[in-house]
Amino acid sequence: MNKLLGISVLVVVISVAAYMGYESRFYDAPDAKTYDVINAEGKVIDQFTIPKITDVVGHKDEEAILYGMRLLNETARLLPDNVGNGLNCNSCHMGQGKRELGAPYINTYNRYPRFNPRAQRVLDLNERINGCFQRSMNGKPIPIDSPEMQGMHAYMKWLGGDVAPGNTVKLTSLEFFKVGKYTANANNGAQVYAAQCGTCHGSDGEGIKDQFGDYIFPPLWGDDSFNIGAGMARASRAGAFVIHNMPLSVSREAPLGQITLSEQEVVDVVEYFTKKPRPDFAGKENDWPGMDNPADSRY
């Protein structure tokens, strides 16, 4: 009897172990990916792996890097005088700016100064960050010599590793959506939103807050959302983000458990939520100087 019991227990243990091994493929984080580093001519000159936050310990700029990381994650809570809505920087920059198709910060520090089509001039990194504060977060710029601005710089520089200016980590590009290829249907977009987006972003786009009043999932329209001057208010920009990142946690596929909507569904749902009421943007008359505004501009 004891021998039979022992065999039975062993079978159960092996079965559970096998099942857990099978299931773990759905839950374990994938191995860190290695990317090529290319120079200005497109030649591969090195390899890059996204650093782990534990690597910051002992770094000469440890305090500034960690402060910058917190600010990007908790922007609305830590900078209430500068954020005019409920959004954080990382509401749009997925996974602390490490997600390849989620508007990453990996190349950001080395890419600026850079020409900006909307401004029709070269912007430095301070101007680019403050543009997000004024548009995506519907707020006020932060002083460029402040610990806050310097912390954000420090985090973005650290995230980019030892890649020298002029070189680039070769990431899959978040190509802007060619919305003109499709006829948008906002009524169908409302159905897609209700089925795929409303659980997190709210049935009326209001987002979801925690018990402290901070947003867990950001609002997509209304007073606490991004204003009409934000890139996300344009269908081409919102569409590119949605098709690669949304909706989350509805499958067992790494890295975010997202599924991919069809291009038509994406066009329809962004037509639905980008045209919803949202704050105005003071200074919108200065955008795209000397040229026509893009067709998907809200003004």
Automatic annotation (TrEMBL):
Molecular function as annotated in GO: electron transfer activity; heme binding; metal ion binding
Boundaries of every Cytochrome c domain copy: 184-277
Keywords from the named record: Heme, Iron, Metal-binding
Entries under Pfam families matching the protein: Cytochrom_C, SoxA-TsdA_cyt-c
Matching InterPro entries: Cyt_c-like_dom (IPR009056), Cyt_c-like_dom_sf (IPR036909), Cytochrome_c-type_DH (IPR051459)
Disordered as annotated region, ranges: 279-299
SUPFAM superfamilies recorded: Cytochrome c
Keyword Transport found: no
PANTHER family: BLL4482 PROTEIN, BLL4482 PROTEIN-RELATED
Protein name as it appears in the record: Cytochrome c (Partial)
Species this protein is from: Pseudoalteromonas translucida (strain TAC 125)
